[in-house]
Amino acid sequence: MPEIRQNLATKEWVIIATERARRPEDFKTRRTENKLPARSDTCPFCPGNEVNAPGETCVISDENGWKAKSVPNKYPALQADGDRTRTIKGIKRYMTGVGIHEVIIETPVHNTTTALMKDRDVEDIIRIYRERYIALSEDERIELVTIFKNHGESAGTSLEHPHSQIVGTPVVPQHIRLRIEEAMRYFDDNGECVFCRMMKEELREKERIILETDCFVSFILYAAASPFHTWILPKRHTASFGKISDREVADLAKILRTTLAKMYYGLENPDFNYVIRSSPCDIGESDSFHWYLSIMPRITKTAGFELGSGMYINTSFPEESAKFLRGVKI
Amino acid sequence: MPEIRQNLATKEWVIIATERARRPEDFKTRRTENKLPARSDTCPFCPGNEVNAPGETCVISDENGWKAKSVPNKYPALQADGDRTRTIKGIKRYMTGVGIHEVIIETPVHNTTTALMKDRDVEDIIRIYRERYIALSEDERIELVTIFKNHGESAGTSLEHPHSQIVGTPVVPQHIRLRIEEAMRYFDDNGECVFCRMMKEELREKERIILETDCFVSFILYAAASPFHTWILPKRHTASFGKISDREVADLAKILRTTLAKMYYGLENPDFNYVIRSSPCDIGESDSFHWYLSIMPRITKTAGFELGSGMYINTSFPEESAKFLRGVKI
Prior knowledge:
The structure is a homodimer.
Chain A: E1 3-6, E2 13-16, E3 58-62, E4 65-72, E5 86-89, E6 92-96, E7 100-105, H1 119-138, E8 144-151, E9 163-169, H2 174-190, H3 194-205, E10 209-212, E11 216-220, E12 230-234, H4 246-266, E13 272-277, E14 292-297, H5 304-309, E15 312-314, H6 318-326
Parallel strand pairs in A: 2-15
Antiparallel strand pairs in A: 1-2, 3-4, 4-7, 5-6, 7-9, 8-9, 8-13, 10-11, 11-12, 12-14, 13-14
Helix pairs in contact in A: 1-4
């Protein structure tokens, strides 16, 4: 019998489709060997091609040159100049597309990926995330800062060189506001953060845990929307990613890289997105919300049912997926 | 300068990315010629292969045999037997996956698609939608009935034979509840249905209209989430698709087929999903909600930004897309 599971924090329902369920190893993407060069003359992110790229907003270097850096997106979805003027004309509501859109170039090496980097290198990337997160949050026109990474074609990447993106938007989308409100409601009813509660129970039950470190827990969601849908939560209650400490930056690098490496080897380099969900800038710290990093491997497709109902059909068992990843040696 | 547009009915924000905008004709998929046979021995939906398919729940025939029919899904996401027992254990909330999942086999012909059918044949399909919609709604365990179609691989189809699906779920997902609540709020404030208002203004402005018939209007959304994102709205205020009249069934067949044909010829057979959004079974008719059919061509990919923020980036101008489709001769 299929199960319909609810995510306690987001209130989203997911159908765990037992009739269609596949074993964790059936989700392997059987990606062919990496045939990319370590450097590409035509890649705007490779060292030496900077002439085609806008100036840096943050850079981490060693004696050999830059190791990771952030730059303005050359084709930004939003533009840094201007005010967030709102216009209302009948059904038409719009505002000028003011905002900040930057790219984090994660490494000078063209043909690598997070899973294959050193923890220390991933730490540099997360330090840039923090610095730019704080800078974008301080712009008074920005209401929400979203950090995300697209890996692979089905995850929406157009450039192969390892990179992630940060976007500051002048609105808090309803999708996020809803999560904030649900978390407030849970706090109202129970006097505790719903994410802290989820983490505690996951650590007690253990069956969906992928990995635990000093400061973080990574686990497959009980109501995972798709196979291997994973959350990484900081153990210390913090609502804003901007508050991540140095020690947590190093620890997040470790758990993120290791979790992605388990997916890389276990599922053979699947396409994925990850995103850092943090409280809106106006809220900052709060007792009810908790920032987290969500990883969504793109190994199945969403179709009309998902688009139409907002419910998801997951053809894997979260408990089996977590057990499988725990067993992957890296 | 990019524009951030809001959908008045759903309150969703969309970035119309002017810097990245493409012309309507740039979205052509350049699909190669249809090389499928008119009948396939291995297709479970082709006439003569019924031995492998479950029994019919509704069938429309003529002297040559069946023209369109509905059957239970052989691999249902939800199961028809059992009660919707809900269990709460700590963070784990689930209910038994009771529900109804049927497939509508749209035609005996293996290698056709809605755009290439006769209006009269599409009418048969919509008559089956109505009949099964009403039947599923009457099951007291069902809270919401969703009808959808996946066309093409990137829209999530696994079978080529033209078909659509109908799913009755024992919950109203938050995604739908939110839309119902927003519509109620608009009605509260303005004393009119927000969808009726949108339709009136679209008909007055004309620039996003694709087609108007006696009973329906098809238009590209002002805040289209992706290129060519289209709504077809009935002119008569009705909240439940189950209330569609015979005259409207025939008229919907015409506007749906013609709209899809304009996309088929203008964009060269793009993959797409469509979905019929109707009020939850418990609500039925209401002054504030309005059923509609939403078409989403799958010609761009959603990535980490969309997954993370719930905002969409659209690289086309809705007004240009509508003008382009109006000009497509079929």
